[in-house]
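Quick one, tokens below:
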């Protein structure tokens, strides 16, 4: 079995956090803070064996890698080099950049970049529904360009972001083999 790092990308409001939370809902979670915020995903049907490690923290608004500090990337790369688990998972904007993805490609992990492809109008309505916090439109447009550049540069696995969240989660769970 190959050790994998699965990174889920998509524009703000695409459903990345929802999909990952639903895909891993059958696992027990153990939030940890050191050496950086991460969540141990444990199999309750297998004596709580470590199944995967998710970078970042789960929280109601801006979870995943967005819960990490802005300067976390060097620590994240160093920690990943210690091979903390056979399967690492991340979602969010904070580490979704060529420098980090190239570090994964040069590590002991096989990178699987999963793109949750969601139309901008649907993502905008989801952003509006989830919070009173309005993300700066210029920042959102920058993220749209960033995701387009990542999907043009790296091999991706595309998931249809227009599907209902349970269907997306089922597809992601199958892809993650959890």
């Amino acid at each position: 079995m190959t050790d994998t790092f699965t990174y889920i990308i998509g524009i703000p409001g695409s459903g990345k956090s929802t999909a990952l939370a639903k895909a891993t809902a059958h696992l027990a979670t153990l939030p940890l803070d050191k050496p950086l915020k991460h969540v141990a995903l444990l199999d309750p049907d297998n004596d709580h064996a470590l199944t995967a490690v998710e970078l970042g923290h789960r929280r109601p608004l801006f979870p995943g890698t967005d819960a990490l500090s802005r300067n976390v990337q060097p620590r994240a790369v160093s920690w990943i080099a210690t091979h903390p688990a056979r399967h690492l998972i991340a979602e969010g904007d904070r580490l979704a950049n060529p420098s980090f993805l190239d570090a994964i490609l040069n590590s002991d992990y096989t990178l699987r970049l999963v793109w949750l492809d969601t139309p901008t109008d649907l993502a905008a309505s989801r952003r509006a529904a989830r919070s009173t916090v309005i993300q700066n439109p210029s920042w959102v447009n920058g993220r749209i360009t960033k995701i387009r550049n990542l999907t043009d540069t790296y091999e991706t696995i595309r998931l249809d972001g227009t599907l209902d969240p349970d269907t997306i989660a089922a597809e992601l769970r199958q892809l993650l083999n959890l």
